[in-house]
Specification:
L-malate dehydrogenase (NAD+) activity; 19% strand; alpha/beta; L-2-Hydroxyisocaproate Dehydrogenase, Chain A, domain 2; binds nicotinamide-adenine-dinucleotide; tricarboxylic acid cycle; Rossmann fold; EC 1.1.1.37; binds (2S)-2-hydroxybutanedioic acid; 2 domains; 9-stranded mixed beta sheet
Length: 328
Amino acid sequence: MTDTTPVVVTVTGAAGSIGYAAVFRIAAGDMLGPDRPIKLRLLELPQAVSAAHGTAMELQDGAFPLLTSVDIFDDARAAFDGTDFGLLIGAKPRSKGMERADLLSANSAIFAEQGAVINDVAADDIRVIVVGNPANTNAAVAAASAPDVPAERFTALTRLDHNRAIAQLAAHTGAPVRDISRVSIWGNHSATQYPDIFHARIGDRSGADVAADTDWLVGDFIPTVAARGTAIIEARGASSAASAANAAIDHVRDWVLGTPADDWTSAAVSSPGAYGVPEGLMCSFPVRSVDGAWQIVDGLEINEFSRARIDASVAELQSELDAVAARR
Ligand code: NAD
Ligand code: LMR
């Protein structure tokens, strides 16, 4: 039977670029399906509350049938009270010339505080996606600040990288996006991430066959996907927004409603020690959603080429977490 109980969705940084792009699609039912009424909570910094009010007025003007209420907060404890889904977007974005790691100290404090609040007041079965960068480490920080919430309820966004990899594969091979499956993003949402196509299916070709063109793989595909965020900042003068919102919605939708049969996606989840990734690192893996929970795809053969790249990104994740711990 379809569940029509309203759910509480809290979006942080709701007046920012990604938040603004996300909330209308959430209200339209793109994230939780066409039958799920939504109570939206918008959390902002005090100076952006007025802008959030403007967004709320526009949401009202959308007359979305599923949108039961929109409330605006500048207090995290009130915004997360009883929350079922937390989209943690609010943070400083990267500007030209910065690496995501440069945001570490500025942003990790936000996620420590919000994790602790979620621990105290959110619904017991809250699901959290962290978008604010550096997303993996911010999610690890939030999870560590919420000891009563199972770690698997905290995740970080690497679906944008996954979608970018599929789009690049489609452009390179001519296969339609819908005929590309089983792409994997491993590691950090950063320049060290590893988009892995060795297990992919690309139209009527195997990923290993496409990957055999190492000049293209190493000289074009991997750096294009890994540096796409930078290329967008260079071109737009601001970091990706609509594509990031779209990916966050894809992530939560698949988490709740399931991944397509015979495919998987990518998400950063707390490592249980899978594929040699140390426990507790918030690492991107190939994942399937089964009965509303992410499961890391197991048993994939990892060749030497992939192993070296996964290890490099995992080492970066470890050093980010160590840097946060050293500052405390
Ligand atoms: P933005 O500057 O347009 O908006 C950020 C908003 O967050 C602002 O309105 C700000 O007032 C608010 N904010 C800041 N601190 C807050 C707090 N403690 N509580 C509530 N709100 C707070 O930035 P944006 O373009 O929307 O990007 C948001 C974040 O997402 C950045 O860190 C960016 O780097 C990151 N990002 C991640 C991905 C990904 O794939 N993981 C992709 C794109 C951008
Ligand atoms: C992206 O991948 O587009 C974002 O993470 C923005 C950034 O900082 O690169």
